[in-house]
Amino acid sequence: MMSTTRLSRAAPRAFTLVELLVVLAIIGILMALLLPAVQAAREAARRTSCLNNLHQMGIGLLNYHQALRSFPPGGIEPRTPRNPNGRQLAWSLLLLPYIEQGPLYDRVDTRKAFDAPENAAAAATVLSVYICPSVPQASRLESGRGPCRYGGIYGERITGPNNPPKGVMLYDRAIALHQIPDGSTHTLIISEDSKFPDGQWINGRNVFDQAFGINQAPAFENDIRSEHPQGANGLFCDGSARFLVESMDLRTLAAICTRAGGEIVQLP
Predict the structure, then answer these.
(1) How many C-beta neighbours within 10 Å does residue 266 have?
(2) What is the pLDDT of residue 27?
(3) Given a cut of 70, is residue 37 above it in pLDDT?
(4) SS3 106
(5) Pairing state of beta strands 89-90 and 75-76?
(6) Distance (Å, rounded) from C-alpha 257 to C-alpha 254?
(7) What pLDDT is stored for residue 214 in this prediction?
């Protein structure tokens, strides 16, 4: 009678509860270390995209200047108590033919106001060039019209009243390069204004005179503000765009918001 040999296999060893908890803790630590890096990388990409928007506007502004010998006015016929029925058309509307949006510009009847019924359909168009991707719900319509998260620089109120206005984007007045003695490389023309509740690319309210530090204005003010940590992007009259840090000296900030202040500017 032949003997049989019984082969036995060792049962697989399972993880203990302690080992499982250690593995989960390690994964949690890795996630905690990686998540801020991922978020920072995404914000860096959004900030670069925002700068690209301003570069595109800068090229459009210089082409506008070459064609018409000036930059566009900040707005046409703003509404005031003396002129409650003004058309209130914005610089960002006038710029459309120079940022490859000529067909949209042609759909707007510039003889009528920004909120005229005839302009409603065109005004509801959302344009990515006027939207910073860091703004939450950046593409939502404002009062039924396409948003603009950027504003033209009307001047500054940091060092004193803005009367007469000291900036480049003025109402009913177009400024040329030769009228900027401070120099195009040291003079802002457009900057971010991410929290203005009525920013629309057709509505001439998207200009402002800077009154506070960057990202420091109260909610009711129209000022340089962004969703980027520690600063905001701005466009200069030479077409260059750069990040403006929150820690910028207020006198320097005021200086770059004026076209003829005679200041000596050293940007950080």
Answers:
(1) 9
(2) 73
(3) no
(4) helix
(5) antiparallel
(6) 5
(7) 97
The answer to the question of residue 229 being in a domain is yes
Q: Which amino acid, one-letter code, is at 117?
A: P
Q: Is residue 217 part of a domain?
A: yes
CB 188 within 8 Å of CB 234:
yes
pLDDT at 59 over 90: yes
Residue 245 has pLDDT above 80, yes or no: yes
Contact predicate 229/43, CB 8 Å: yes
Is the per-residue pLDDT at 1 higher than 50?
no
Number of domains in the chain: 1
Q: Which domain holds residue 214?
A: 52-256
Number of other CB atoms surrounding residue 179 within 10 Å: 13
Largest CA distance in the chain: 120
- 128-145 pLDDT tens trace: 999 999 998 777 898 999
Does residue 108 carry a pLDDT above 90?
yes
∠ CA(179), CA(162), CA(78), 5° rounding? 85
Q: Residue 155: what are its φ and ψ, rounded to 5°?
A: 145, -155
The answer to whether the CB of 69 falls within 8 A of the CB of 176 is: yes
